[in-house]
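Researcher: I'm preparing a figure for a lab meeting and need a structural model of a single chain. I don't have an experimental structure, so a prediction will have to do for now. The sequence is pasted below. Please return the structure as C-alpha cells so I can convert it later.
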Amino acid sequence: MDHYRSSRLVFRGVNPEDDPFFETLTQDSELVANASPFLLVPPNKKNAEEFRQFLSERCRLGVIICLPGTTASSTDGVAKPTPIGQLTIMKGPPGQEHHRQGSIGISILAAYQRKGYGTEAIEWALNWAFQIAGLHRVAIGQFSYNPDAGKLYRKMGFIQEGVQREALWWNGGWHDINDMSMLEHEWRERQRSNGTAEGKGKN
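Model: Understood. Here is the structure written out cell by cell.
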C-alpha cells in the first residue's frame, strides 16, 4: 500500500520551488476567504513564501494535493504530478501533545472543485491521522457563508460540537464558525460500516 496516494490523488511534501503554486492559491480571493479567517488583502510573493513555510514547518502534516502525472503530458518523458490544492493537519498548542488532537485545513483550486477531490483528500487525511499518526480527535471548521462545506463534512461523518456565533466579519455581515470533529472510534465504525480494512484496528 502506498500511504502517499489515494485512488485518484498523490500527496507530496512541500518544497521551496512550490512558491509559484502557493502564489496561485493565495491570489484566489474566494478560495482564501473560504479557508482562512485572516483579513483579505491582495497577496504578494512574500505571502506565498510564508504560506509554504507554514505548511512545511509549523503543521503536523502539510502536503500538496496532486493529480498523478502522465508521460504523455511531459516534455522529458517523466511523469510530473499536477498540484491542485493543499491540505494540513495542524498541531495543538505546545505542551498539549498528549491530547492527540489535530485540525484539518484544506483548499482546492477552483478548476478542480466539485469533482470529489476534496472528499478524497480529507478521507486520506483522516486515515493518516488515525492509522499513522495515532491521533484520537480531528477537528474541522466551517464558515457559515460556505454552506456546501458544512454539508460535505456532515456527510463524511463529522459531528458539530458548537457554534462560534458571529465570529467572522465577511462581505458586509457577521457570520458563524461551525466547529466539528471526528473521534477515532467514530472513524473506525464508519470504516467497518463501509467494509474497509482500516476499521479492523483497535481503538
